[in-house]
Specification:
Chain lengths: 259, 321
């Protein structure tokens, strides 16, 4: 209950943070719009986009079956920086010490600080997919309900990675340098910048060390495959949850050590 | 060191030790603070004040020793200990984007207040800190003094039984300072025990009943403010008229005697570094000697003893990092 108070407070602060809204929502929409316009004629029905559900799409809209999930995944993980900055701000203000000595447990404190970002991540993904459909005319595939577990597992992994980085970094410069390096390089390796099919096989295998890649594999099954492979989606979700557990445990250990 | 502390004080700290690697930040620190008592915590930079406060606040575990508030020992899991403790840190630990009321509401909830009790207590605190008329403005728009008052208000919101104040008046104007000091005294009058860490000796002298002086992690003096001041001779200077030829030999060596004119002598006594002298006893001894010599006491001058002098006598004048 007291952890929830921290969550509500952080949601209120995030609501007042224009920078966070721009990074998490406006920026991916701008990227999707520009790249959609630039590449819509290049990407028609390719190997990676061949589901029956997209057969009725106008040729110019097919590109969004790739762009929307790719940039949703990429910008979902930009949460890492915002989360790290939130932790740092608490430390710099001295409010973190106030929270630490309040009658709540360290675990409640971390939950309270993490939950708002999970909520933000879920809302971000929802809005991006809604915009994808309404603004760009993308299809949610034959079984759109499958997007729900994928988005949930990806948001869990992104928030958990944010927690780990937030407990590790000590300065804003570290967030800018290491946070961005981590997020952008993971996005690049995993295939957020181009269809995963375009990556060489070795690169595709290497990319499996990132939660981004597993998110993209799952999204591809729902949005672009001729036949949905439920096993692949389940495996991807399980791996994403595994990443989340790994990041949370690492974050918890760093947090306890640093205190 | 034998440590026995058993009296029913609000806060009891016994045999506290804390080291960071080779550096012993706190060494065998024991003290008690009663309900309604304001106790100053003095020490140069790096003396161990912050570490002591962090241990008391439950932010840092001690390597050895115990701390309790009303018998409840500190620990990371002790919600009872934490709910009885209020902390006003030196930094402005408030959310600038939130209003004063929102800040108080959030921390009130965190300390388990709710409903009408919370709303009523927020109004009481806003009145106490003089921010009723600005309660709904973002704290970012406040002056330094207003932020300090809000910082203090958050510390007292949940009606703690013990308060730790770390330089709560740094950087504020005289009006806000006076306001804060009165508010602290009011807390004590309501039965709250207070530990008041400050470099402003005159504040400690005015509002504290007793003080602890620590250096190199050790308690080097403690007692009531008046008791501590009595241990500082400040400067004792008397002028005596004596017709004895060997008057100077009658005066003990620790006094400096200067001849002013033929029969007039100036006798001075100044404390050396780390020296504590009982001014009253010294003056009494001098008067006895003067009477025995049948000399005439022309004047007695004492510069007002203050905590700053005591502090410098105890901790020296060497610059600290």
């Amino acid at each position: 209950m007291r952890a929830w108070q921290i969550t509500l407070k952080d949601l209120r602060l995030l609501g007042k943070d224009l920078r966070a809204l721009v990074i998490l929502l406006a920026l991916p929409l701008v990227f999707i719009s520009i790249l959609g316009m630039a590449t819509s004629k290049l990407m028609v029905k390719t190997e990676s986009v061949q589901a029956e559900s997209v057969e009725n799409l106008e040729p110019g809209k097919i590109v969004y079956q790739e762009l929307v999930p790719s940039y949703t995944v990429m910008f979902a993980f930009f949460l890492v920086n915002i989360m790290a900055r939130s932790f740092l701000a608490e430390k710099e203000l001295g409010t973190f010490r106030r929270l630490w000595i309040a009658p709540i447990s360290p675990f409640e404190l971390l939950i309270g600080k993490t939950l708002p970002f999970l909520i933000v991540s879920l809302v971000q993904c929802l809005l991006l997919f809604v915009c994808g459909r309404l603004l760009f005319g993308m299809s949610w595939g034959a079984e759109p309900w499958l997007l729900v577990p994928i988005v949930c597992c990806m948001s869990l992994a992104a928030t958990a990675l944010g927690l780990m980085v937030a407990t590790w970094v000590k300065t804003d410069a570290q967030v800018s340098a290491y946070g961005n390096l981590l997020v952008i390089s993971m996005a690049g390796v995993s295939g957020c910048f181009m269809p995963r099919d375009w990556l060489p096989p070795m690169m595709q295998n290497i990319s499996l060390v990132t939660p981004h890649a597993w998110s993209l594999i799952a999204f591809e099954q729902v949005l672009s495959s001729t036949e949905i492979d439920y096993g692949k989606i389940a495996t991807s979700c399980a791996v994403l949850c595994g990443f989340a557990v790994l990041f949370v445990v690492s974050g918890w250990m760093i947090f306890r050590k640093s205190q | 060191m034998e440590c026995f502390l058993g009296s029913p004080n609000v806060l009891s700290a016994s045999c506290l030790k804390k080291s960071f690697g080779e550096n012993e930040a706190v060494r065998d620190l024991s003290f008690e603070i009663s309900a309604g008592e304001i106790c100053g915590l003095l020490g140069p930079n790096g003396a161990g004040k912050s570490t002591t406060q962090m241990i008391l606040a439950g932010y840092l575990p001690a390597d050895n020793g115990t701390v309790s508030i009303n018998g409840t020992a500190v620990s990371t899991s002790s919600k009872l200990y934490r709910s009885q403790l209020g902390v006003v840190p030196q930094e402005l630990a408030i959310y600038p984007e939130l209003s004063a009321r929102e800040n108080l509401h959030f921390f009130g909830k965190l300390y388990g207040l709710s409903g009408n009790d919370l709303l009523g207590q927020i109004d009481v605190v806003l009145q106490t800190i003089g921010l009723e008329s600005r309660a709904d403005e973002p704290a970012a728009q406040f002056s330094g003094g207003m932020k300090r008052r809000l910082n203090f208000g958050i510390g007292i919101l949940h009606r703690p039984r013990f308060l730790i104040l770390d330089e709560p008046t740094v950087g504020v104007d005289p009006q806000s300072r006076a306001f804060l000091l009165e508010s602290i005294q009011q807390q004590a009058a309501d039965g709250v025990g207070v530990l008041y860490a400050s470099h402003y000796m005159e504040e400690v002298e005015v509002i504290c009943q007793k003080a602890l002086v620590i250096d190199h992690g050790q308690l080097i003096a403690q007692g009531t403010i008046s008791g501590l001041l009595n241990r500082v001779p400040a400067e004792l200077a008397i002028v005596v008229e004596s017709k004895s030829e060997n008057f100077q030999q009658l005066i003990p060596d620790r006094f400096t005697v200067k001849t002013l004119s033929d029969n007039n002598y100036n006798i001075r006594l100044s404390a050396q570094e780390n020296q504590i002298i009982d001014l009253t006893a010294e003056l009494a001894e001098l008067i006895q000697l003067i009477q025995a010599d049948d000399a005439k006491l022309i004047s007695v001058n004492t510069e007002h003893a203050n905590l700053e002098q005591l502090f410098l006598n105890l901790t020296g004048r060497t610059l600290r990092d």
